[in-house]
Design goal:
globular, about 190 residues, about 20% helix, two-stranded parallel ribbon
């Protein structure tokens, strides 16, 4: 009976250990599948990462729209504005040197980790230190993310704990009417 009890305890601890949070990485050809809520409409959106030096391009595909969103190396490193472009304006869209797409810059991430807040699009986002109730799970694993809340409105973001590619895995209550959630990551 003692052995059965010990086996149950072992398997319970093992199951909890294997169901731990994880931190996704972004590398060349990583495919990210999101569900987006756009002004009351729901659509699937696929992003495929193309890394080149310190720059990053996301090949976007949604409802027949295909576009490449190009982030410059200086934006990936020090950007301070999030682009909500939907790729409908050009087959290749070169963002401004201050703009990122579906991620914050490395310097904004460092500021968040060190100071508990960062400024993006002239909005201060503050780290929520409460237990994260609505995080993002993929394949039964909760993504390790920093949950931030805007000081001027109710916007919430969950940013993956990855200093190289601080991807936004979820936005909710965005006053622009654009919310999204990461559903799947496929490494090709």
């Amino acid at each position: 009976m003692k052995n059965i009890f010990l086996m149950i305890v072992f398997f319970t601890v093992y199951q909890k250990g294997t169901a731990q949070n994880y931190i996704p990485i972004i590398k060349n050809n990583t495919e990210l599948s999101y569900v987006c809520k756009l002004h009351g409409q729901t659509r699937a959106l696929s992003l495929t990462a193309q890394t080149a030096g310190d720059g990053l391009t996301f090949k976007l595909e949604t409802r027949g729209v295909k576009s490449s969103i190009v982030m410059l190396p200086e934006a990936v490193k020090n950007g301070n504005a999030l682009s909500f472009n939907q790729g409908e304006y050009a087959p290749v869209l070169n963002l401004k040197p201050t703009e990122t797409f579906f991620m914050i810059s490395r310097s904004a991430y460092q500021e968040l980790v060190q100071n508990g807040s960062f400024v993006y699009n002239n909005t201060t986002y503050v780290l929520d230190k409460n237990e994260d109730k609505n995080g993002v799970s993929i394949d039964g694993k909760l993504i390790e993310a920093l949950h931030v809340i805007a000081k001027i409105d109710a916007t919430e973001m969950w940013i993956i704990k990855n200093p190289e590619f601080p991807l936004i895995c979820k936005i909710s209550r965005n006053p622009l009417g654009i919310d999204f959630t990461l559903l799947q990551i496929v490494y090709n």
